Amino acid sequence: MLHNIAILTGGGDAPGLNAVIRAAVKTAKIQYGAHMLGIPDGYDGLVQHAEPWPLDVSEVAGLLYRGGTILGTSNRGDPFSYPVEKDGKIVKEDKSDDLIECLKELRIDALIVIGGDGSLAIANALFQKGINVVGVPKTIDNDLKATEVTFGFDTAITTATEALDKLHTTAESHHRAMVMEVMGRDAGWIALECGIAGGADVILIPEIPFSWDSIMKKIENRSKRGSKFSIIVVAEGAVPEGGEQVIQASADETHGLVRFGGIGHLVGEQIAKNLKMETRVTVLGHIQRGGKPSTFDRLLSTRFGVEAVHMVVRGEFGQMVALRGGKIIGVPLEEAVGQQKLVDPEGQMIKTAEAIGICVGR
Amino acid sequence: MLHNIAILTGGGDAPGLNAVIRAAVKTAKIQYGAHMLGIPDGYDGLVQHAEPWPLDVSEVAGLLYRGGTILGTSNRGDPFSYPVEKDGKIVKEDKSDDLIECLKELRIDALIVIGGDGSLAIANALFQKGINVVGVPKTIDNDLKATEVTFGFDTAITTATEALDKLHTTAESHHRAMVMEVMGRDAGWIALECGIAGGADVILIPEIPFSWDSIMKKIENRSKRGSKFSIIVVAEGAVPEGGEQVIQASADETHGLVRFGGIGHLVGEQIAKNLKMETRVTVLGHIQRGGKPSTFDRLLSTRFGVEAVHMVVRGEFGQMVALRGGKIIGVPLEEAVGQQKLVDPEGQMIKTAEAIGICVGR
Amino acid sequence: MLHNIAILTGGGDAPGLNAVIRAAVKTAKIQYGAHMLGIPDGYDGLVQHAEPWPLDVSEVAGLLYRGGTILGTSNRGDPFSYPVEKDGKIVKEDKSDDLIECLKELRIDALIVIGGDGSLAIANALFQKGINVVGVPKTIDNDLKATEVTFGFDTAITTATEALDKLHTTAESHHRAMVMEVMGRDAGWIALECGIAGGADVILIPEIPFSWDSIMKKIENRSKRGSKFSIIVVAEGAVPEGGEQVIQASADETHGLVRFGGIGHLVGEQIAKNLKMETRVTVLGHIQRGGKPSTFDRLLSTRFGVEAVHMVVRGEFGQMVALRGGKIIGVPLEEAVGQQKLVDPEGQMIKTAEAIGICVGR
Amino acid sequence: MLHNIAILTGGGDAPGLNAVIRAAVKTAKIQYGAHMLGIPDGYDGLVQHAEPWPLDVSEVAGLLYRGGTILGTSNRGDPFSYPVEKDGKIVKEDKSDDLIECLKELRIDALIVIGGDGSLAIANALFQKGINVVGVPKTIDNDLKATEVTFGFDTAITTATEALDKLHTTAESHHRAMVMEVMGRDAGWIALECGIAGGADVILIPEIPFSWDSIMKKIENRSKRGSKFSIIVVAEGAVPEGGEQVIQASADETHGLVRFGGIGHLVGEQIAKNLKMETRVTVLGHIQRGGKPSTFDRLLSTRFGVEAVHMVVRGEFGQMVALRGGKIIGVPLEEAVGQQKLVDPEGQMIKTAEAIGICVGR
To answer: Is there a contact between D169 and B253 if contact means CB atoms under 8 Å apart?
Structure first.
């Protein structure tokens, strides 16, 4: 039996999106002779009945190492609460039936959704309404409970670790504090893992409100023992004890359109003021989301893409692919969504950091 | 209670060895105030009562990103069957008591052995004789059953995948077959994973004796469909159906001292002859074992080193650290050694390769 | 005749400093049997009669690829106007005689100074006072007229270009303006060359005061032609027409100890406000000064170090090494210092950028 | 006046070919409003009147960092002596008039040829016959006298140097000789420059026939001084004194279709035999020709492409672009072709290598 499978990508960027698409298209065509349709701009493309893109094997050549997504991702939002203009105002309407209508018009047998928690929750809601959905989890922050790891995360921490390596050499020569702000609003995985791998002295994450005292003491102790430089990694969502997140420094002035490093600068300023120490701040920003996927992420993306198609063919809908114990398995979307995996302040990874003398802000 | 812990590295090189040493030294000193002694040249250093190297935190600075091992590894062999010269001839003797004597003289409470299957088997034998041993598994080929993955492997496949990326661009412009030989005598993990991540068309591994016909057909089919180049990844231990391994091409002439790419050249020659196609051969060799460890390998090495010291302190001897389901746990050496993890010809990873159209030689 | 040569590094960091030291030490020892003394912390080490470091060939092993400088660089400043505490206040005194005294005590025949414009001007002043000085130019900004290029620059633009490559992929998927701030207070070489090599759409440099209108028009024109993303590279010293440099955003509050990206954020904010476009800002900071030197920089550093020693042996003092037309030659320090090489707004490199459609702010 | 410009690429691969094409297309369109036609498969495409490819700005998006050439290169050869089948035999015929006819049919005003010495000689011959030709030099070996450097070379030595860095770490831990064979049949630039930048102990190049004795002595001297490993870089065209090139090891058997590392293996074998030392051989092969162009090569390619179009517009035909003293200038093809730039055995670069103790085979 021939299948007609649609695929879309939702939410923020993550290296490996294209590799999932490539693997899914190849598996569908080569192993099952199925047709694949690429939906442009995520759920938006379905709501707005955009022209789909028939994806043949030749179309996906070279996608393995290409960052970004050839399909684009949705910008406007949840089809169940979709922004539409009415009488000059923007109101939210349920457009899920339009979306389902579009799938029917295109004679789609199944839909593969590659996306983060938000996109997968929508996928689950569509499944509840009878759509044959299979999910592929994507979160560069690695904060999804249902899978040990998602693609894009290894590339992000690799980029951040390479940046730390570079800061190290120049810090050593000059007796300075070097602050590097990385992604992570709610979950500190990127900061924690790149910090351990890059030899940071202080790592500040959202899960552990930090004490200014602990940071200053750590840096001072290093100075006393002869290490005149210190490397501080700060997740963008890190907060001082009793303080608030300072992510969107200029939000009100610019209507939320621009995002600057907030907490990184604040930490740098405090170190400079308190310790009379030269301090430099680097804000990695979207560099972490871009670039060729790492070898690990290409493998994981490929395995996810292949398995998603197998699940479609086996009719295992309402599920998403996940990595557990080295195997790709299926996990019910219902269980998977809304389950954020935060850093456990008493877990093995934090304890590893503390065992080798890293200050995690407490 | 203060501890006196010795650490040694055995066997071939793997990126991350130094990172394990660094993490172990830091944990021992910072968390437990224990003393660490580095044993030079693996078991050899103990058999020959070589001067140990007191390892303080300052000694291990910068080791996180340094390839190789500052301790050196043993070249001469198993202390239980140690080569000694007698009457002008080399005979094997059990030197394990000398080794144990040396540990006593140095007042060592526990020994951490970082090594492959061979070194860990010796560690287990020493444990049977009463030595407090904790193992850290190391195999660049990733062929140890007891742990999901070992450090060094991610770096090796990253190096090999980057090489494949480079071959891709030049192959595309010139209508050629590009053969790349990678490590892997018994286990094909490196070839298989770098081949998938690097977009290879054919992957030949020791676990699946390959058919010349299948290879030629795959390349010809690609030509027919307009892809005039093909990328072939060959594990050094790959064998044609009914053939033999050709690893040591010049072994007899040079007394085993030199190793050249064997099977890679043979495969290249056959493709050139049979398909009248320009063919180029790359033999990656030891490049795969060298270089800075990848971010993943630095993390895993650090976690292994930290946990090994925790196990020493908790008195969990006769065990080795292992990664399972995202956690570092202890596994009895007895169960761990001698259990090679080969690629399952019907397993998920091979099926993934075949699903996207890669020929695995059959 | 045996020589006794001292070597020091001054000013900011640049990848390749260690490679110069290594090459100089090797050449001195191997080719001439001379002694080399490393002076710690630049001119400070001489003024304060710090213990010098005898540098043998074994000492410099591994320095070829190590960023930073093993000798450290001076922090306090010009020996001819050296800060000393007097009656509780900091006053400036001429300490050049102390420095010369120190060289005599150490029986130094010649001094090799690796440094930027400031350090080389001091070297020239010392030469005027009779010291046998040879200079090695160092400026990561590549703004020295006397040499076609200096080491560190290629590494810096390589780091910045790799960052642009990563921003490109994620910009493409998301319809955004990506602003990246790079080094360059007076000279825009880094911004210009990484911008061309990294495919930027807008490049803003100190030498060409930029028009907000030109930037906005460029980005809007791209949108109209279907390219919904734009990449903007901003040198930290770039200024709007009629505006001022905004390098030290928080200078007053923090006594000049902390430096944040200034103009990058300002540019991002304006784009967001004017074009109602999502904008992200990356501030590369000191990442550009760190890391392994590139192959080009290792070669240039090595050639500089070797030639500096040849010049010492040939008695060509008061000169510095320089690259011209592929050769390393000697250039009088007098001519070399104080001659800044800025980007010529009508020169070939700017014209190259404009020929391929890059907006340089006008 | 509108122009109609054709562009083709000839000969072997070099990173930066696509970047030249991109820059030329952009300059032609944006600055001059000219039309660009891409000729597929080099001169072959003209001889065989293949369909040309109209190249618009959108067509060349992303080409800056893409290795290889989107146009393909000629495989069959010189249009002035073109292989054609006659009565079942291959004979050579002058097809240059067919080629010129094709240019006329396409109404081409000028032809930009990107190629090596051979392709540029043909370009010159076409110029003599009245065609408006501008050349862009390409040789990964950097052996063209008329330009200080060509694109692709920096990428090649960067790849080779990174491989040497990796060999270094693993050599250090294991007391071995590591031999790495790189490209360079006639000119040893790649071996020489990557060898210096990568810290090789021995560098063998075609220009200096090597003495087995010198190599062995160098390695033995290192052993005596405690360095138990040695790194040997061998250009594929290196020859022992009184010996012959061994490039095409298996040429006769396979009709020249396959090329294996020859001299690298021979050198490895001799070291193993003579010094009883473990030896490993790496043959980098076409990895050196592939991959993303380096930052330097992207800049140079872009500058070459831009200037080539300027020269077309200014009517400066019969010339090629060249880098001299930091500027791109025009050089008559007549002077440029046939002038190979070999390593001068008494030149500055070789002397640099010897000054720091590298054995260059003598």
So the answer is: no
Q: DSSP code of D85? A: E
For A212-238, give one letter per residue: b (16+ CB within 10 A) or e: eebbbebbeebbeeebbbbbbbbbbbb
Contacts of A31 in chain B (CB under 8 A): 354-355
Domains of chain B: residue spans and CATH: 4-151+293-336 (3.40.50.450), 154-289 (3.40.50.460)
**Interface touch D357/C196, C-beta < 8 Å:** no
How far B358 CA lies from chain A's nearest CA (Å)? 10
Beta bridge partners of B149: none
Residue in A closest to C164 by C-alpha: A287
Q: Which residue has the higher pLDDT, C291 or C299?
A: C299
Q: Give the C-alpha separation, A218 to A201, whole Å.
A: 8
List, in order, residues 6 or more apart from D247 with CB less than 8 Å away.
Answer: D185, D236, D237, D259, D262, D263
Instruction: Give backbone dihedrals phi and psi of D269, rounded to 5 degrees, phi first.
Output: -60, -45
Q: Is D357 in Cβ contact with C30 (below 8 Å)?
A: yes
Task: Decide if A141 is catalytic.
Answer: yes
Which candidate, C24, C289, C247, places its Cα nearest to that of A174?
C289
Catalytic annotation, pick one of C41, C44, C141, C154: C141
* pTM flag (> 0.90): yes
Q: Are strands C177-182 and C279-283 parallel, antiparallel or unpaired?
A: parallel
Taking CA–CA distances from C66, the nearest residue in chain D reads D165
Neighbors of chain A with 3 or more C-beta pairs under 8 Å: B, C
C126, containing H or E segment: helix C117-128
Chain B residues with CB under 8 Å of A148 CB are 325-326
Query: Which of D30, D197, D302 is opposite residue C295, by nearest beta carbon?
Result: D197
Q: What is the pLDDT of residues D55-76, one digit of tens each?
A: 999 989 889 988 889 998 876 7
Helix (H, G, I), strand (E, B) or coil at B233: strand
Beta carbons within 8 Å of B339's beta carbon, 6+ residues apart? B144, B145, B146
Q: What is the distance of C-alpha A145 from the center of its chain? A: 13
Please indicate whether, in this complex, the C-beta atoms of A277 and C257 are within 8 angstroms of each other: yes
Task: Tell me the pLDDT tens digit for each residue of A107-137.
Answer: 999 999 999 999 999 999 999 999 999 999 9
Classify residue A312 as exposed, middle or buried by CB count within 10 Å of its CB (0-12, 13-18, 19+): buried
